[in-house]
Amino acid sequence: MCRTRVRDCIVNELSSTDSDSEYCKYWVEWFTYAEGNEYFCDVDEEYILDRFNLTNLSNDVPNYLQALEMITDRLPEKALSNEEREQVERSARYLYGLIHARYIITTQGLKKMLDKFKRGDFGRCPRVYCHQNPLLPVGITDVPSQKGVKLYCCRCEDIYNPKSRRHNMIDGAFFGTSFPHMLLQVYPALKPAPSEQRYVPRIFGFKLNAIAELHRWQDEQREEQKKRLGISSTT
């Protein structure tokens, strides 16, 4: 196997339409710059090549060896047909996602995701009283192919669906359930004070619960008045 600029060889054979990605030299670079993959960071090649970090992944990923070769920019000795290449490409995306979930809770991975968090790459909390607090991607299960990625706000401590349909299609297991909380444990200064502001529903300036109490009091006073006047409550 030889090191090569695999992206230059396959750019015309893959289904991606992202024009910017056509200028990338390597698969990981192309993948992370592709439209819809903005949440992902680039996993260091040294991490990918360490077999210890890939323990048990070969059992979960079809075409594992070919997918790993594609991710690490090593072309197979035997040319693949278009159909075979599409299958390997799907497996490579899946494998990279599983590796990514492990990588982002390492020291180096946390640093890279911290930079993306500070830039607001994952979006901002839509809740008004969170004041545009940046979000973090999180999975609600670590089992792949179950649920899409969600976005966690460390101010209101709630999760939201991504705004983009492309981001909604990302597997939540590619980020895992632990990542945002691990990041905040390592960098506690990132966590803002919880928002104490809450929206209070009102009608004509009155809180709804206050209006309900007023209505109950009025009903009670009306019933007492009827009793004093000897009027039946069914009248």
Task: Give a brief description.
This protein has 235 residues and is mostly helical. The protein has helices at 6-10, 27-33, 45-49, 64-71, 82-103, 107-119, 165-168, 179-186, 208-229, and strands at residues 135-138, 150-153, 158-160, 202-203, 206-207. The strands form two sheets. A three-stranded antiparallel beta sheet has the order 1-2-3, with no helix packed on it.
Describe the overall structure:
By secondary structure, the chain is mainly alpha-helical. 40% of the residues lie in helices and 6% in strands. A 3-stranded antiparallel β-sheet has the order 1-2-3, with no helix packed on it. A two-stranded antiparallel sheet has the order 4-5. Helix 4 crosses helix 5 (82-103). Mean pLDDT is 86; it is low at 1-23.
Structural features:
mainly alpha, disordered N terminus, two-stranded antiparallel sheet, 9 helices, 235 residues
Helix content: 40-55%
What is the spatial order of strands in the main beta sheet?
1-2-3
Instruction: Supply the helix-strand structural class.
Output: mainly alpha
Q: From N to C, what is the helix and strand string?
A: HHHHHHEEEHHEEH
Return the average pLDDT rounded to an integer: 86
Beta-strand residue fraction: 5-15%
Largest sheet descriptor? 3 strands, antiparallel
In total, the number of strands is 5
Number of helices: 9
Distance from N terminus to C terminus (CA atoms, Å) equals 94 Å
Rg, nearest Å? 27 Å
Based on Cα principal axes, name the global outline. Answer: elongated
Poorly predicted spans: 1-23
